């Protein structure tokens, strides 16, 4: 089995779980805070097909991977109507935070599973140990990256909704106007990362906190394994 196929067999399930639970968490939070829009549109399902965006989930990451660029993508956003929230200003902040929060919860579960597996490991079949260890470590990394990347204060990322809710209303109204440029900013980020790989835009901004947080989860796994 080639290394590329092995990586795909690890990467694809990890990405699906991380992205689907991220999106559904937004819908669950919105429902709890008074907005049943996602439930009405049957978007609280864990069925990955309901969350696939043909362009963002398939076309864009596939094309980027084919041409050797940084692989970015997105799922179909879970619909949230802020006007139906009990407290729209605070509610949107909490709904936005639910996605990254879910990814950090998944990373925690991954670290616990990794620690328990390492602590109880006796004599697994050849190759199984490496596959499980690699898969769980990749699962932790993907969830940490998705959580912190989505907290960037750039529309349409979750961090922009959190920042908007924290700003004074007059400033929040001006900041909200950036939403119209959200997709252009996202595309510009992808293009800049691809065109100037030596600049390390992602590595220098999100990379250090991702590595630090990932290290904390790996320390948790090691502590559980040694308990």
From TrEMBL:
Residues 136-189 form the Peptidase M50 domain. The chain crosses the membrane at residues 58-78, 90-118, 138-157, 178-196. One of its GO terms (biological process) is proteolysis. The keyword Transmembrane helix applies. The keyword Nucleotide-binding does not apply. It is a multi-pass membrane protein. Its cofactor is Zn(2+). InterPro entries: Metallopeptidase_M50B, Peptidase_M50, Rip2-like. Keywords: Cell membrane, Hydrolase, Membrane, Metal-binding, Metalloprotease, Protease, Transmembrane, Transmembrane helix, Zinc. Its main location: membrane. It is found in: Cell membrane. One of its GO terms (cellular component) is plasma membrane. It holds the Pfam family Peptidase_M50. Signal peptide: none annotated. GO terms for molecular function: metal ion binding; metallopeptidase activity. Belongs to the peptidase M50B family. This is Peptidase family M50. It comes from Tsuneonella dongtanensis. The lineage of its organism: Bacteria, Pseudomonadati, Pseudomonadota, Alphaproteobacteria, Sphingomonadales.
């Amino acid at each position: 089995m080639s290394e590329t196929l092995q990586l795909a067999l690890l990467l694809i399930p990890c990405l699906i779980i991380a992205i689907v639970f991220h999106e559904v968490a937004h819908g669950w939070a919105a429902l709890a805070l008074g907005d049943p829009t996602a439930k009405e549109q049957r978007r609280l399902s864990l069925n990955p097909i309901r969350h696939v965006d043909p362009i963002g989930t398939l076309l864009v990451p596939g094309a980027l991977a084919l041409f050797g660029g940084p692989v970015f993508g997105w799922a179909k956003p879970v619909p949230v109507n802020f006007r139906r929230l009990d407290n729209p200003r605070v509610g949107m902040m909490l709904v936005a935070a639910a996605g990254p929060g879910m990814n950090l919860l998944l990373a925690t579960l991954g670290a616990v599973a990794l620690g328990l597996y390492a602590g109880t490991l006796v004599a697994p079949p050849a190759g199984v140990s490496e596959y499980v260890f690699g898969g769980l470590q990749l699962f932790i990394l993907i969830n940490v990256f998705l959580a912190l990347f989505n907290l960037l204060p750039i529309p349409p990322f979750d961090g922009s909704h959190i920042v908007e809710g924290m700003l004074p209303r007059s400033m929040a109204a001006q900041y909200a106007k950036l939403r119209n440029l959200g997709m252009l900013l996202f595309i510009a980020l992808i293009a800049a990362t691809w065109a100037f790989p030596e600049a390390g835009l992602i590595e220098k901004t999100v990379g250090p906190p991702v590595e630090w947080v990932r290290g904390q989860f790996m320390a948790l796994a090691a502590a559980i394994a040694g308990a």
